[in-house]
């Protein structure tokens, strides 16, 4: 716990102009970002008597070790800078509304020759018209299915469209009348675009005129005794009315507005947003957050507006935003919204009429969302705290381990040996800090030696970061020169900025080269940067300050309070030996053996046995299982890539596109191997030098063994015509 007076700036040093300020902890991590109309007055509030501060504010200022600020010209600039820094630094004491999913939109790709209707998530694209967001993708598909009867717009992917155009046969939707089949020329591009425009107009709320026109055509067809056409038009009208019922009119005058409501208590807050377009509720979304900072309803509304419109396209900001309480700097927020939209935006509290009635409905939804969240997680925070306390008590730790790192080794019969590091903070996964390793210092299967290498590599990098930022108290012990060099691996690509939990994509193998042990690597370099042994003297000037420490999360920069290894006594001893070689003695170590779920401590002959019902054991199991999952996912991806390797991979400078062009031209690697350099040069994009490299590389590789007929023992080969002999 730091004393705020130790880093409190003098009042005369703080300007009285608008600006944004950052609190940093002892590791230079940004832990809080705020803005102020008057920096001097705002910062003075943090350095009053601790007893007068809100408990969350008191925790923040005692965790911080320094404060700094940036002066701006206006409150609008302060708002913009605050939002960008919160997104960049992810400070732990700022309120962050974490969405558990990416809300789907109904999108019409007007930027294509034949516009396509589809469900889209994520960032918006130029030239695409969006409707929504919707709570569920199935709600969009139900609406689209009803409307395709009347507006048979293309919904197929580019591959399906091209295949239908090539074969001259439309897909199933073209046969049943739910697609106008532009792929086979049933309609012209102009006619199809007109259908897409009508579809967009209907979705935008201009429905009455179109339905009246259909009803008029239906009546005319009946009078002319074209009963089949009249029946079809009748069904079209019914389909459109059913689609309209799914988004009933709630506001008159084709209003475009977003209504935001907040439900809160001392610890948490829920936000609900209704998106009204053309007078109809087109979508609904919501978030629940922990109130990690002392913030009132107006502050929560401001954070919600930043979250909602900070990354949205300008056309997603409506003309009117209705809120339960105006932000403290409402004029600046309104100007920021207007800048995002490109025109004036009304930010106000509804006082009467339909809009106030609808706000009551939104507020009711927020209350229900908060109640449901509390029902699901009534004991979640309490359980996590109890689990950490049980772990601390069982392992004899002075304090609860708020940061836990777990390591696991994975391989398949000694091949493709890899390791994983997962991080849990406050009992929750911190996927943005997961790491992967390749074991390169030796071949074969040796889990103990692998664990020693990985732990050494991880904490050598920590010591390097600590030395680089000037946090050395004394020169650390010189590590074992025989220890393997650190080949730090790439971060987990699943961690999003919604640290929200999303499925991991296929892990890319770590291809970091073996480093020269003499230079100090630049931590701002690319992801596969190799670390070195702990420094034993002053850093050379050329590498002492590769860049100013800016508070961004860095790889391996922060130590855990508890290090967990997947394994028993041998793995724990290997991890302890690696830390001892680096002179690190302030990190607790334990191992969790799978057989009996025993917890092993260094230098103890008997394990610690936690009760099966222990929340601490359950948390350790979850951390160990997550490390195992992450390691085996990486190992499988490496093995799959190795199996898919081709002789052409060895050709320097030959990319994937030209590899495919060569295989497509010759049909197989075998025929490419038999080709002359002049024949290889005939492939588009292949020059003579590249052709010579391909020929030399394939000539130096051993061809694959021929197939053998197991019944007769004869070799099966292919002649130039492709027939088997």
Automatic annotation (TrEMBL):
Q: Which SMART domains match?
A: GIYc, HhH1
Family, according to the entry, reads as follows:
Belongs to the UvrC family.
Bias kind Basic and acidic residues: ranges: 544-553
Span of the signal peptide: none
Q: Which keywords describe this protein according to UniProt?
A: Cytoplasm, DNA damage, DNA excision, DNA repair, Excision nuclease, Hydrolase, SOS response
The protein depicted here goes by the name UvrABC system protein C
Q: Where this protein primarily resides, as one coarse class?
A: cytoplasm
Q: Which Gene3D superfamilies match?
A: 5' to 3' exonuclease, C-terminal subdomain (1.10.150.20), GIY-YIG endonuclease (3.40.1440.10), UVR domain (4.10.860.10), UvrC, RNAse H endonuclease domain (3.30.420.340)
Q: What interactions and quaternary structure are annotated?
A: Interacts with UvrB in an incision complex.
Domain named UVR is located at 208-243
Q: Where is this region: Disordered?
A: 468-555
- Short name of any one Pfam family annotated for the protein: HHH_5
User: Domain named UvrC family homology region profile: which ranges?
Assistant: 259-487
Organism, per UniProt? Streptomyces brevispora
Instruction: Please describe what this protein does.
Output: The UvrABC repair system catalyzes the recognition and processing of DNA lesions. UvrC both incises the 5' and 3' sides of the lesion. The N-terminal half is responsible for the 3' incision and the C-terminal half is responsible for the 5' incision.
Q: Where in the cell is it found?
A: Cytoplasm
Q: Where is the composition biased (Pro residues)?
A: 512-522
Q: Which residues form the GIY-YIG domain?
A: 16-95
Positions with biased composition (Low complexity): 475-493
Question: GO molecular function: any one?
Answer: hydrolase activity
């Amino acid at each position: 716990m730091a004393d705020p007076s130790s880093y409190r700036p003098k009042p005369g040093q703080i300007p009285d102009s608008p600006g944004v300020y950052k609190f940093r902890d002892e590791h230079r991590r940004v832990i809080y970002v705020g803005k102020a109309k008057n920096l001097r007055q705002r910062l003075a509030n943090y350095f009053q008597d601790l007893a007068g501060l809100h408990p969350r504010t008191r925790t923040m200022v005692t965790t911080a070790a320094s404060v700094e600020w940036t002066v701006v010209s206006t409150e609008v600039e302060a708002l913009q800078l605050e939002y960008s820094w919160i997104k960049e630094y992810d400070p732990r004491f700022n309120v962050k509304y974490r969405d558990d999913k990416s809300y789907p939109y109904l999108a019409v790709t007007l930027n294509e020759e034949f516009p396509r209707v589809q469900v889209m998530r994520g960032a918006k694209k130029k030239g695409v018209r969006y409707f929504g967001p919707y709570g569920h993708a199935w709600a969009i598909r139900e609406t689209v299915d009803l409307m395709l009867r009347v507006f048979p717009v293309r919904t197929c992917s580019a591959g399906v469209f091209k295949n239908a155009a090539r074969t001259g046969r439309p897909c199933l939707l073209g046969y049943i009348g739910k697609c106008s089949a532009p792929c086979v020329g049933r309609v012209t591009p102009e006619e199809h675009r007109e259908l897409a425009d009508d579809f967009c107009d209907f979705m935008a709320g201009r429905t009455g005129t179109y339905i009246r026109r259909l009803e008029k055509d239906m009546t005319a067809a009946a009078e002319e005794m074209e009963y089949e056409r009249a029946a079809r038009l009748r069904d079209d009208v019914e389909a459109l009315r059913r689609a309209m019922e799914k988004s009933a009119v709630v506001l008159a005058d084709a209003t475009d507005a977003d209504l935001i409501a907040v439900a809160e208590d001392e610890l948490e807050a829920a936000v609900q947003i209704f998106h009204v377009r053309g007078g109809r509720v087109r979508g609904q979304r919501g978030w629940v957050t922990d109130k990690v900072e002392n913030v009132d309803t107006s502050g929560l509304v401001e954070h919600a507006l930043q979250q909602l419109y900070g990354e949205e396209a300008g056309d997603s900001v409506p003309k009117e935003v209705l809120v339960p309480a105006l932000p403290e700097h409402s004029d600046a927020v309104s100007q920021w919204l207007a800048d995002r939209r490109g025109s004036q935006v009304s930010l106000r509290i509804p006082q009467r009429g339909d809009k106030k009635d609808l706000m009551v409905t939104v507020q009711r939804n927020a209350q229900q969302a908060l109640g449901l969240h509390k029902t699901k997680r009534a004991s979640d925070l309490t359980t996590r705290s109890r689990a950490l306390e049980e772990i601390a008590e069982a392992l004899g730790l002075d304090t609860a381990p708020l940061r836990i790192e777990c390591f696991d080794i994975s391989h398949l019969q000694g091949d493709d040996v890899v390791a994983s590091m997962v991080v849990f903070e406050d009992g929750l996964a911190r996927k943005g800090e997961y790491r992967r390793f390749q074991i390169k210092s030796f071949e074969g299967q040796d889990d103990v030696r692998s664990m020693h290498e990985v732990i050494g590599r991880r904490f050598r990098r920590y010591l390097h970061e600590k030395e680089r930022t000037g946090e050395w108290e004394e020169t650390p012990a010189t590590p074992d020169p025989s220890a393997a060099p650190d080949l730090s691996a790439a971060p987990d690509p699943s961690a999003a900025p919604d640290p929200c939990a999303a499925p991991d994509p296929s892990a890319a193998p770590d291809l970091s080269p073996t480093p020269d042990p003499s230079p100090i690597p630049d931590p701002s370099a690319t992801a596969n940067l190799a670390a070195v042994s702990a420094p034993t003297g002053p850093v050379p000037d050329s590498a002492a300050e590769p860049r100013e420490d800016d508070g961004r999360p860095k790889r391996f920069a922060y130590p855990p309070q508890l290090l967990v290894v997947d394994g028993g006594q041998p793995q724990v001893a290997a991890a302890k030996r690696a830390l001892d070689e680096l002179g690190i003695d302030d990190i607790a170590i334990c191992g969790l053996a799978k057989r009996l779920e025993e917890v092993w401590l260094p230098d103890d002959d008997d394990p610690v046995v936690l009760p099966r019902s222990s929340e601490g054991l359950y948390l350790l199991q979850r951390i160990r299982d997550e490390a195992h999952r992450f390691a085996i996912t990486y190992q499988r991806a490496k093995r799959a890539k190795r199996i898919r390797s081709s002789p052409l991979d060895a050709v320097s400078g030959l990319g994937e596109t030209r590899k495919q062009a060569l295989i497509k031209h010759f049909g197989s690697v075998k025929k490419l191997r038999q080709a002359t350099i002049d024949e290889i040069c005939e492939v588009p994009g292949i020059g003579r030098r590249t052709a010579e490299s391909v020929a030399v590389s394939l000539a130096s590789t051993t061809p694959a063994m021929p197939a053998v007929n197991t019944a007769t023992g004869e070799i099966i080969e292919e002649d130039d015509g492709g027939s088997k002999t």
